[in-house]
């Protein structure tokens, strides 16, 4: 029996949980909070898809890691903004050889692990022995408690939103890319192939990334346009793409990210993003990117992982990113106002 915990069962985590709950040979648990947790405990979880609803009973739904036995696999579904605060709990929830799978958008905290010396130094703001990223792992707690050798990196394409407690709505396709952070480990990783097999047996479409950092950059191209502009404008992605100016702004942000990636040694192809015309766009509103969901729910925004860290890289490599810099300033202001509003009306946060 493989023990798997979804740590932070929000939109993405709940989707994974429903699928993994149906999987033979898996003992599934999840960590959630608030009304969502209470509903899961009482009534289970529902995943709404384009082809119908799937319901799962979750027998181990808890509010804290201390209430669970050691896990073979912990899939971290927390927002990037919350991960560092949970470093110790995630670390102690894992067995010694356990695997922590990080699926958050943006640059991950483990980025510097296993890179060659030049890139490791360039990635690090502290020292080359533990090339932590100060924005994402401020005091190195993730590095020391979780240990990057226990990490599998993940990139997830799968639009999801919690529409009411215990109910996640998923639109379109799910595609998951997984990879070993240490490039030299990719070819011989049996734990990676076992994880991929397991996720596929649960109906989650997972494949091995040739280079997980290249996949991170590719996904960032999607998020840098969708998440940031939709959060700032409150338009869903379809509406954003229908505006020529906002579409072009997205392209400019993508070009700046590609320039940063290229300076660091990754040649990222342009985002495959067709521009729906007004005629072909579906009338139904499109997916609200997760950063827009955060604005609407009064939650902290993933500014550092999606924009701040790429900007940090840009500075280190001498790449000019004027539009990214402006968007970073605006998003930081929005993040501040969302947090102030949540502090004034905590019941609605
Ligand atoms: N949603 C999407 O379509 C996609 C999201 N992603 C990425 O996946 C990651 C997760 O996103 P998403 O699923 O949208 O985020 P959510 O905010 O929906 O999920 C995070 C969950 O963690 C819970 N949580 C936070 N702190 C605690 C705590 N101390 N104890 C228990 N539970 C806690 C949150 O509870 P609460 O709600 O109360 O804050 C929430 O349910 C992000 O990096 C996002 O960018 C990637 C692809 C698509
Ligand atoms: C754009 C999308 C849905 C891609 O899967 C995403 O990553 C998000 O909403 O954060």
From TrEMBL:
InterPro entries listed in its UniProt record: 6-PGluconate_DH-like_C_sf, 6PGD_dom2, KPA_reductase, KPR-Related, KPR_N, NAD(P)-bd_dom_sf
Signal sequence range: none
Pathway annotation from the record: Cofactor biosynthesis; (R)-pantothenate biosynthesis; (R)-pantoate from 3-methyl-2-oxobutanoate: step 2/2
Ketopantoate reductase N-terminal domain: residues covered: 4-181
UniProt key word Chloroplast: no
Assigned keywords, A-Z: Pantothenate biosynthesis
GO cellular component, as recorded: cytoplasm
Keyword Ubl conjugation: no
Broad EC category: oxidoreductase
Catalyzed chemical reaction(s): (R)-pantoate + NADP(+) = 2-dehydropantoate + NADPH + H(+)
Domain Ketopantoate reductase C-terminal: 211-333
Biological process according to GO: pantothenate biosynthetic process
Gene3D superfamilies, per database record: N-(1-d-carboxylethyl)-l-norvaline Dehydrogenase, domain 2, NAD(P)-binding Rossmann-like Domain
Molecular function GO labels: 2-dehydropantoate 2-reductase activity
Record-linked Pfam families: ApbA, ApbA_C
Source organism superkingdom: Bacteria
Annotated EC: 1.1.1.169
Name of the protein described by the UniProt record: 2-dehydropantoate 2-reductase
